[in-house]
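Journal club side-thread
Mid-discussion, someone asked how the predicted structure for our own chain would compare to the paper's figures. Pasting it here so we can look after the session.
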Amino acid sequence: MSQSWSKTTRYFVLSLSLAALIWFLIAARGLIGPLAIAALLAYVLNPAVAFVNTRTKLPRKWVVLLVYLISLAVLITLGIVFAPLIAQQLGNLAEELGLFQAQLVERLATPFLILGFQISLNELVTNFGNASTTFLSPDLILGVIQSTSTNLAWILVILVTTFYLLQDWHLLREWFIGLAPDAYQTDVRRLYRSIQQVWNNYLRGQLVLMLIVGFLTGIGLAIIGVPGAATLGILTGVLDAILSVGPAIAMLISMAVAWVVGSTFFNLSNAWIALLVVILYVLIQTVENVWLRPRVIGQWVHLHPAIVFVAVMGSLALAGVLVTLIIIPVLSSAGVIGRYIYCKILDMDPWPEISEQLPPGSEVSPVASEQPARISERPTVIRNR
């Protein structure tokens, strides 16, 4: 029999292991965002995998491969369909912007009078030309290419990780729960279900928010008279899930359509219609970020709207878009774990609502509160106990 460690050795090894874990998380912090996005994608696709697996009785690995390939095919098809249209619109927009720049430079080069004073903007014209040259400098273009290559590498990491998580998540879950001592595996399983409910609620709230933003954008574009307002509204709602970046892309596409096609209602120049589109997007995004998102998401994940607002804006400014996508469910999940630790420290029941439903002296089974679809997990849980 292996010799037992002393209490001092146990605490020392535990402290050393925690320090090594913290060091690893800091060193690999760049991986946290992409891995979290992969986990979120796998979580979104898992219901489709479970549905097909239940209906067809095919092995899970083949169902995962089928759903994964279909999802990729849909994304590639959308890219093939919309990419040429977007490129064409952006090309027309670039030509219009070139003409607009030439007209602007010509007008700025002409001195004008204000209250009897002659004002010349020749210096501004020179700086404007220099800024245009700097914007198209080789260093900037090289930086854009390098950034695009890095993003493509992260996209590959996300896609591959999503596939493996879809295929083996149930095994990883049971392995993680099995790490806990037998007496605490029931608590770990309940914590997992509570955190799972948090992420379910977050996704539902995000879907509601996307529908609201898409509807408001479509109605606003229709009032302005932009052709294809319904399609642009749907596109805006879908891209709204990618905070900051998604709405910006949708705004550029809608602005390009307005600049090239104009309005079917108002007798204004295309440039003015494009400006109205930009104002519409800015107003909707301001209302969403300040009022809609904190209230809708906060209600679904049971967080105060102020906490949601500060978390989203702070993570967007300090950590980037990837962290912003998951900061709210992560905070809510941390609240679930924190409540459990608080109750254990004070020797309170973390789940009083479950205990009240049980007869005195009985112990809830790890899967007693599960739905019938989870009955297949009972043999594993009984063996772990």
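Post-session note: The longest strand covers residues 112-114.
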